[in-house]
Amino acid sequence: MSTTMIQPSTTLDSSLVLPAHLTTEEDVAQWIDLMYREAQAAGALAPWESDRACPCLVAWLNALAPSLIRTGGRVAAVCCGYGHDAVELVNRGYEVCAIDASRTAIERAKELHPLHASFFSVENYLAPSLRHRHRFDFVVDTRAFGVTPPNFRQQLAEAMADMLGPHGILLTIARGCDARAGVQDAAPFCVSERELDELFSRCGLTAIRGFDDFEDDCDPPVRRLRAAFRRT
Asked: Per-residue pLDDT averaged across 59-64, rounded?
């Protein structure tokens, strides 16, 4: 475990810059929490956060979830942030476990959703508890690839895949970019379709119906990639 504490910077923008010394899961957790703390101090949302459930998730839940996810199924909301996605899932009747590496984000989620506070817990999604192994019918990610440093992406994919039950579905929604996007040195990060497909393929997962590649309803619009995976 790293013993180097990441110190606050003077502005939110500077805190988003990827530090050079992130080498462990704990380093990543500290940095993510720093970004949330500085966003709150600035009276702002972190750039991957919103005041509502992710519309790209809601649309998928409406169109495809009924045929893929059993009613009342166990769901892991990974990198849940302020919890709007998790509450959307709870309200649809799922049994939800919402985790985030940031204590600041989880505390805020509990403040925003006091009736659902018991669903939220601080946990490093890069190294989730063994009790989550092969436990979930549905694993949901709408921001993990945006906040996780690129050199931890394979570990992220493996951690989420390991949470899936034998017939589970993993849904990821990420900021999209071309394979030639180059080095990324600040959050939120983007990822290419090819890389996502390769990351999950190494975990034994295959996209069910390919990738959705589209612009969302943000202002300005953000390119999104969305895909559901299951075991090969």
From this structure: 97
Model confidence over 134-172: pLDDT tens digits?
A: 999 999 999 999 999 999 999 999 999 999 999 999 999
Q: What is Dmax (Cα atoms) for the chain?
A: 48
| pLDDT tens readout for residues 76-123 | 999 999 999 999 999 999 999 999 999 999 999 999 999 999 999 999
- Give the start-end residues of each E strand in the chain: 74-78, 95-100, 120-122, 136-141, 164-175, 205-207, 212-215, 223-231
Q: Determine the Cα–Cα distance for residues 92 and 103; give it in Å rounded to an integer.
A: 26
Measure the CA–CA gap between 138 and 140, rounded to whole angstroms.
Answer: 6
The model's pTM: 0.92
Of 81, 96, 105, the C-alpha closest to 173 is 81
Q: How far is CA 174 from the centre of its chain?
A: 8
Return the pLDDT at 11: 40
| pLDDT score for 17 | 87
Radius of gyration over every alpha carbon of the chain, rounded to an integer in angstroms: 16
Q: Are 188 and 47 in contact (CB under 8 A)?
A: yes
Cα 4 from Cα 212, distance rounded (Å): 40
Q: Which two tokens stand for residue 136?
A: 């979930």
Residue pair 39/46 in contact by the 8 Å Cβ criterion: yes
Q: Residue 50, exposed/middle/buried by CB under 10 A (0-12, 13-18, 19+)?
A: middle
Q: Which residue has the tokens 């709408």?
A: 142
| Residue 7 confidence (pLDDT) | 38
User: Which residue is associated with the tokens 């600035």?
Assistant: 42
Of all helices (H) and strands (E), which one includes residue 74? strand 74-78
